Amino acid sequence: MPRTPLPSKDRIGIIFNPLGGRNKREGPEEIRGLLSKLGELKIASTPKEIRDALICFEKAKKSWILISGGDGTVQMVLTALFHKRPFFFLPRLSVLPGGTTNLIAGDLGLIGSQKKAIKRLGYMLEKKDETWIFATHRDVIRLSREDGLVRYGMFLGGGLVSEGVALYENKFRHGTKGASMGIVLTVIRCLFGLFRQKRSCSYMEINVNNQSRIRGGVCVLLCASLERLFLGTRPFWARARRGIRMSLLLSGAKGLLRFMPYILSGRPHPALTPENGYFSCRFFRAEVKTDSPLALDGELITPQGERPRVLLEYGGKVVFLQW
User: Tens of pLDDT along the chain (323 residues)?
Assistant: First the structure.
């Protein structure tokens, strides 16, 4: 990864979501105090609050935005940046793991303790040490619907994935069992669903790049601009170099146990074909029609009407800074 110059403190804007799962567990007051030493801090947990914070940062000529929150917070920031366009030139972003699952932060290298990452950055800013500042480019997924809904994000799931998100939201997010136990139980439920394929599949019609057409039961739909997903898995085996990644597990997939190591590690195999129930590609434009919800960075996008069309497109590129 290429190294990049370290911005000064007066160029740093910070969005802190106190409702993020890890932020709540680790103590929002302490984390907010640590972050306030790095730059101008705004507390925001709704799309409007985040949009207002970004407008203030643009007026103050901030060029680096730190986001302390989960995947949903990052999605709200990306939607505001790309859809509302408060900045003429997009700022660089960094994601601190302040949420529950933190897929985006995990893929971009800021894993482990958020407090240590904040203190490490504070030391680097004080000493002007640019040794470990790297720039990573990532594509962004644009999701739009015929009723005018528009979202920008980095990970979309359907089928068992969106079922798992709905289960977690309904049973565990605000329950007494805790977020970590809720995630474990949700993953177990989804894995169990894989082996009940026909009963656990959602009917979908998918048109990819106006070339590949998929119709029928889909157990798992994954689209991502991330390199790694949950637990470091890389379930995308298409070898194209450009575009958003997509993988599908279709109803009645053959040899699921045998091919699972290939799927999770992103290794191609001659038998991973649509005829056998597996599909993987890269795309710039895909249409999805389904009666089932889709989940974008943890937000459930529920269908409006009978089998509405959801358009997934390349939405742009953003630069993330890592340390």
Answer: 566 778 888 999 999 999 988 898 888 899 999 999 999 999 999 999 999 999 999 999 999 999 999 999 999 999 999 998 999 999 999 999 998 878 999 898 776 689 999 998 998 888 877 667 889 999 999 999 988 999 999 999 998 888 888 877 776 665 444 555 555 555 666 666 665 655 568 899 999 998 889 999 999 999 999 999 988 899 999 988 899 999 999 988 999 889 999 999 999 999 999 999 999 999 999 999 998 999 999 899 988 777 789 999 999 999 999 98
Q: Which domain holds residue 96?
A: 9-138
From residue 41, give the alpha-carbon distance in Å to each of 12, 67, 244.
9, 10, 32
One domain, residues 29 and 104 = yes
Which residues make beta-bridge pairs with 313?
Answer: 142, 285
Three-state secondary-structure class, residue 82: helix
DSSP of 216-272: EEEEEEEEES-S--GGG--------SSSEEEEEEETT-SSHHHHHHHHHHT---TT-
Question: ∠ CA 300-90-57 to the nearest 5 degrees?
Answer: 90
CA quadruple 103, 107, 110, 112: dihedral, nearest 10: 60
CATH code where residue 266 lies: 2.60.200.40
In a domain, 257, yes or no: yes
Number of compact structural domains in the chain? 2
With both helix axes pointing from N to C terminus, report the angle between 160-171 and 179-194 in degrees, rounded to the nearest 10.
150
85 in a structural domain: yes
pTM score, whole prediction: 0.90
